[in-house]
Design goal:
By secondary structure, the protein is an alpha+beta fold. The protein folds into two domains: 5-140, Hotdog Thioesterase (Thiol Ester Dehydrase, Chain A); 165-279, Thiol Ester Dehydrase, Chain A (Roll). It contains six helices and ten strands, in the order βαααβββββαααββββ. The chain has helices spanning 21-30, 38-41, 57-60, 175-179, 192-197, 207-222; strands spanning 11-19, 78-87, 95-108, 112-123, 129-140, 165-170, 230-237, 246-255, 258-264, 270-279. Strand 4 (112-123) and strand 5 form a beta hairpin.
């Protein structure tokens, strides 16, 4: 069955997802946190309580994928388009959430299809809202089914002038091998032969790993390193990143508790654009 535009509104779940302190620590190391961020990378450092990076929501909030209800999807042709998270508060070091996902849009782009989804996660015991994740994917070759073209991806320029904050970090040549241990085992990020079949000369970094590096920069520069202040983050993936690349996150303050951002590599190529973040 090709992409089915009538699947908009289809739901999946609820599905329960649990995580431990170890899972949160592994994720933090997978997105580049190290010895200068012991609150996120250790659980037993003297005088330091373990905390969880806000972008961990993209790992534990994906438990009920409604995407499969949109029809036959060639997963080798899927590209991550946009990602957003909204958090009700800090993510606990260990816990269980119940997640329900639904398809919010299916768009025919001619040569491909865009599918947008939203997942809402609540505490499995109390029902308290923990976080919401929203994403869109582009599936190459899946268009032409006659559906709504949907909104166009328009340019979203950042404010003029120098950014108010800028931070550069370097990903490890082995970064994808660590990040994949948090759940995304797609061979595109580890197997050179598979990467060649996808048109790359070597494996690329997970888009959500780049997203996690970016989230760390936002957390420390906009929220003083305090996850309880981190409210939301959204961005559009625009180019691949390779393990070993530098990532520069540029941030412009646009109002109380609001900022725009971009993430670019050492070549100046923007890899996450249309970035917006809010904090408390």
């Amino acid at each position: 069955m090709p992409i089915d535009p009538s699947a908009v509104g289809a739901e999946a779940g609820p599905v329960e997802t649990s995580w431990s302190s170890k899972d949160a620590l592994l994720y933090a190391v997978g997105v580049g946190a190290g010895t200068n961020e012991l609150a996120f990378t250790t659980e037993n450092s003297a005088g330091i309580d373990q905390q969880v990076l806000p972008t961990f929501a993209v790992i534990v909030g994906m438990g009920a994928p409604a995407l499969g209800k949109a029809g036959d999807i060639d997963w080798t042709q899927l590209v991550h388009g946009e990602q957003a998270i909204e958090l009700a508060g800090p993510i606990p070091v260990a816990g269980t959430v119940s997640t329900t996902s639904r398809i919010t849009g299916i768009y025919d782009k001619g040569k491909g299809a865009v599918i947008a989804t939203e997942s809402v996660s609540v505490d499995a015991e109390t029902g308290e809202h923990r976080f919401t994740t929203r994403s869109s994917v582009y599936i190459r070759g899946a268009g032409g089914f006659g559906g709504d073209r949907g909104p166009s991806a328009t340019a979203d320029p950042v404010p003029g002038g120098e950014p108010d904050h800028r931070v550069t970090t370097t990903t490890s040549p082995d970064q994808a091998l660590v990040y994949r241990l948090s759940g995304d085992r797609n061979p595109l990020h580890a197997d050179p032969e598979f990467a060649k079949l996808a048109g790359f000369d070597r494996p690329i970094l997970h888009g959500l790993c780049t997203y996690g590096f970016t989230g760390r920069a936002l957390l420390h520069n906009l929220c003083g390193g305090d996850p309880s202040r981190f409210a939301s983050m959204e961005g559009r993936f625009s180019a691949p990143v390779f393990p070993g690349d530098e990532l520069t996150v540029s941030m412009w303050d646009t109002g109380p508790g609001e900022a725009r951002f971009t993430t670019s590599t050492q070549t100046g190529q923007v890899v996450i654009g249309a970035g917006r973040a809010t904090w408390r």
